[in-house]
Amino acid sequence: MSEPKDNAVAADRAMVPYWEAARAGRLLLRRCSTCSELHYYPRPLCPFCLSSEGEWVEASGEGVIYSWSVERRANPPYAIAFVTLREGPTLMSNIVDCDLDGLAVGQAVHLQFEEREGQPVPVFRPS
Amino acid sequence: MTIKGKAYIAGIFEHSTRKAEGIPLSQLHAEVAKGALDDAGLTVADVDGYFCAGDAPGLGGFSMAEYMGLRVRQTDCTETGGSSYIAHLNHAAQAIATGKIKVALITLAGKPRTGGAPPGRPPMAVIPPDAPFELPFKPTVLNLYAMCARRHMHEFGTTSEQLAWIKVAASHHAQHNPHAMLRDVVTVDEVVNSPIVADPLHRLDCCVVSDGGGALVVVAPEIAAQLRRPKVRILGAGEAIKHTNGGEMDITWSGAVWSGAKAFEEAGVRPADIKYVSVYDSFTITVLMQLEDLGFCAKGEGGRFVADGNLISGVGKLPFNTDGGGLCNNHPGNRGGMTKVLEAVRQLRGEAHPAVQVKNCDLALAHGTGGYLPTRHGSATVILERA
Ligand SMILES: [Zn+2]
Questions:
Q1: Which chain A residue lies closest to B196 (C-alpha atoms)?
Q2: pLDDT digits (tens, 9 = 90+) for A29-48
Q3: Mind listing the pLDDT tens digit for each residue in B207-234?
Q4: How buried is A117 (Cβ within 10 angstroms: 0-12 exposed, 13-18 middle, 19+ buried)?
Q5: I want to staple B387 with a disulfide (CB 3.0 to 4.6 A). Which of B30, B230, B231, B339 is the partner?
Q6: What is the distance in A from the centroid of ligand 1 to the CA of A49?
């Protein structure tokens, strides 16, 4: 897949608190003040009702693997996953510091951040 | 307002190339257009509607309309990945049903093997909002579809052996197609013993990568009445987009749940009435999920449904992709929706290879999935009848 051509992060004013928190090792979700739904990835307009009233909510960092795969042809191979956070939303991530042959759906994982191409990204390792 | 019975597929063409060295995309589009118009018994002067997707070079349909000398009064460049061409069929039928046009041309061409558009995600002029939250994790077409397979296995007990039966069935059909890239019949053991590319998918769970193209000509009933080729009537169609829904995800089902239901409702038929099905087969798991979601079996029963040759023409209850499909025949531009319609029309005309032709094939369904199955994808379904 192709990478973004310019810096999407810098151009998005509403997401500044998200990236600042990420740099400090905290993962922010977005809760809508109108319909109360929690969503991720975060948007200034709620994807359930398009309300622009919302608040940032810090994720606990605890989650379980919803699904996973290991890209075996990559060098080195890596694990991609959907992780369901304790708070509810499911997000795409990588499972790191793990046995690539020992992953399982339902496995408990814990959040950590890694810097990739200057961007702090949320990844998970087995709890 | 319905499209039921208001439009006919009068011409089809599939490019025979699988590796288009030295042939640009524009020429491939024009060659398949000419082939489908010849098949219908029409000329380029008869075309008043043009439908193409993101594989067509230039902005929308402009460059190809110019290159082919089309005089276009209605155009639609809906881009929903591999499902685009089935969506175009729906839109062409709508334009014909409302009297806007009489002869619609739909073209697809791609050359991922020899240059042109690269395989996978098309270049993005504007970065989509999901990109910073996904691209750092290195999603690939393979590992994304693999995660659907993994979750399906977890929830429903689906096995690699059951998925393998889908490739086995496709290979049984491809052996009769002289143009197919993979013509060797394979066994369940060979599929599950092929190397794992992205757990739990094996190399033989994947489709081929090929150059090629195809085209459809869709006409109003009064035009169809003047033509000599066997007629195929459009009975119903449906479309949908499925996405990650703010993180409230279930990746074990696809948008076929919605697009299929719409198509069946409009056509006034049930899954049990369908004699032949063309379903998008980017991977074996794609087929299994779509068959469930279209209602050919209950959710979670797909593994048992596809096993033991149930999809093999002349053997099982639901013959599928009798040209060998994307799994064995071709997958022009990594976009399988067009070839799905082509083989469905061949079946309804009685022009499939005799070894795979379904007896008394009077009702068929073609379905496409475009994009990325677990994150965001387009679904398009069409139900066709021998007239
Ligand atoms: Zn809301």
A1: A72
A2: 999 999 999 999 999 999 99
A3: 999 999 999 999 999 999 999 999 999 9
A4: exposed
A5: B231
A6: 4
Looking at the complex, does the CB of residue A107 fall below 8 Å from at least one CB of chain B? no
With the CA atoms of B365, B362, B303 and B367 taken in that order, what torsion angle do they form, in degrees rounded to the nearest 10? -10
Cα of A125 to nearest chain B Cα, Å: 14
Q: Residue B220 carries which side chain, given as an amino acid letter?
A: A
The verdict on A91 touching B (C-beta cutoff 8 Å) is: yes
Kindly report the average pLDDT of chain A as a whole number.
Answer: 93
Alpha-carbon gap: B134 to the closest alpha carbon of chain A (Å): 6
The verdict on pTM exceeding 0.90 is yes
Q: How many CB pairs under 8 A join A and B?
A: 123
| pLDDT(A3) > 60 | no
Residues 6+ apart with CB under 8 A from A7: none
Distance of alpha carbon A19 from alpha carbon B382, whole angstroms: 44
- Is A62 buried (19+), middle (13-18) or exposed (0-12) by CB count in 10 A? middle
CA of A88 to the centre of ligand 1 (A): 15
Same domain, B250 and B217: no
**Predicted pLDDT of residue B124:** 57
Per-residue pLDDT band at B162 (split at 50, 70, 90): very high
* Residue B57 Cα, gap to closest chain A Cα (Å): 19
Q: Residue B189: inside a domain, yes or no?
A: yes
Q: Output the six-digit token pair for A83.
A: 């992780």
Q: Is CATH 3.40.50.300 correct for A13-126?
A: no
Give yes or no: residues B270 and B142 share one domain: yes
B275-301 mean pLDDT? 98
DSSP state letter for A123: E
* Nearest CA-CA partner of B170 in B284, B292, B325, B290: B325
Alpha-helix residue ranges (DSSP H) falling in B175-253: 188-192, 221-224
B interface residues, A as partner, C-beta within 8 Å = 120-121, 123-124, 127, 129-140, 142-144, 146-148, 150-151, 154, 195-201, 244-249, 251, 374-375
My answer on whether B52 and B94 are in the same domain is yes
Is the confidence at residue A6, as pLDDT, over 60? no
CATH number at residue B95: 3.40.47.10
Q: Say if B99 falls within a structural domain.
A: yes
